[in-house]
Task: structure prediction
Amino acid sequence: LAGFFIRMGNLMNSEIVGLPTELPWGFRFVHSGMPDPMTPRHPAQLYEAICYLISFAVLMHLYWKTKAKDRQGFLFGMFLVLIFTARFVIEFVKENQEEFEDAMTLNMGQWLSIPFVISDVTTPDNLNEFLCNVFVNTECRVVYKAHIKLKDKS
Result:
């Protein structure tokens, strides 16, 4: 939730702006000190803020409406996946923050996001449990619980 307010502050201060766009919701960052402030740009800060709110809602749902809170580390793992996946995607519409990033295929924010997403997505238990909890598939939950019981016995 704090990330939402931070990105809204970035929007108000015309910081971390997006690439030029012709989309109707492009923002003109008139007071940003950029070379061409009248060019509409992606409101990348707003995209990120919305993703952070959605992540907060998903995590709250998982905590209060499912048994995800009983699985140690699951919610933290979901937090990492949600936040850093959103960041990875949104970085495609952001201006590079440093000159050295211009020569890179992926920018620094994307490279730094990859390990956090991979570290949790590659844990099969977390992915299986997430899918069972989100889609509220009773049959899936029964199979998953049987899997956990067998795993705990070994």
Remarks:
- Helices lie at 2-12, 44-65, 74-90, 108-121, 124-135, 138-153.
- The longest helix spans residues 44-65.
- Residues 16 and 67 are 37 Å apart (CA to CA).
